[in-house]
Amino acid sequence: MSVQVVSAPEEVEIKRKMHFRGKVLKITTAGAIVDIGVGKPAVVHISQLQKEPVKKVEDVVQVGDEVDVWVRRITPKGIVELTMIKPLDLEWREIKKGMVVKGKVERIEKFGVFVNVGAEVPGLVHISEMTHGFIQSPRDLVQEGDEIEAKVIAVSRRKRQIKLSMKALEPKPEEVLQAVNQQEAKPKRKAQKKALKNAADDDDQEYVPTPMEMALLDALKRARQEVEESTGKARTKAQRRVKELESLLSQRMQAHLN
Questions:
Q1: What distance in Å separates the CA atoms of residue 196 and residue 207, rounded to the nearest whole number?
Q2: What is the pLDDT of residues 71-89, one digit of tens each?
Q3: How far apart are CA 235 and CA 78, in angstroms?
Q4: Which range, of 119-123, 224-228, 230-234, averages the lowest pLDDT?
């Protein structure tokens, strides 16, 4: 999640986590008042000045300081509450099963890789979720510092776990194989249909079918008729028979022509 930087326009639509560069106007025992240029009062509570405990506000900021702040929330009275602690890109409530995240590989173990996705804890891609194929080590695919994309397959705030999958974003091997087979089958099917059309439908062709081809043509005609007249399982069986006969006839005719 990218951080949006806002300079100082008036009447800007303010949202959570928006980043402003503001100027400290006043400090109190409870925090600081910061001008972020939106025409609304904006305050930073003492607990939001830094991650470490703060005893006095002036130990961290002084009047006139320019500071980086992020919007925490807007109160019903319109007061903008800020924080000087950079928020997480992904909070627990924002992480949902099925969402796709991007992150950087920050640690590699034998069982998988840990990925910084901007959450409180890194996400784990188990070695079995890295790819559909077999790999001996996660380093066969990635190295520390690599940017990867993965899908959230499980999340538990109680266990502080985010489980990710890289292979969930990849096509399955059987789908790839099916697509390849379909592409390879197209020219073959066109040749078969052309041969069948030339043999069965074109009266001007000089091609003379062999006795075997005549028998196959006759059987094909009956099978097609059966498809038209039958229903249910019988129709399915007849359709399968038509395909078998068409394939066999095409093969015989190709051999004959060659």
A1: 12
A2: 999 999 889 999 999 999 9
A3: 71
A4: 230-234
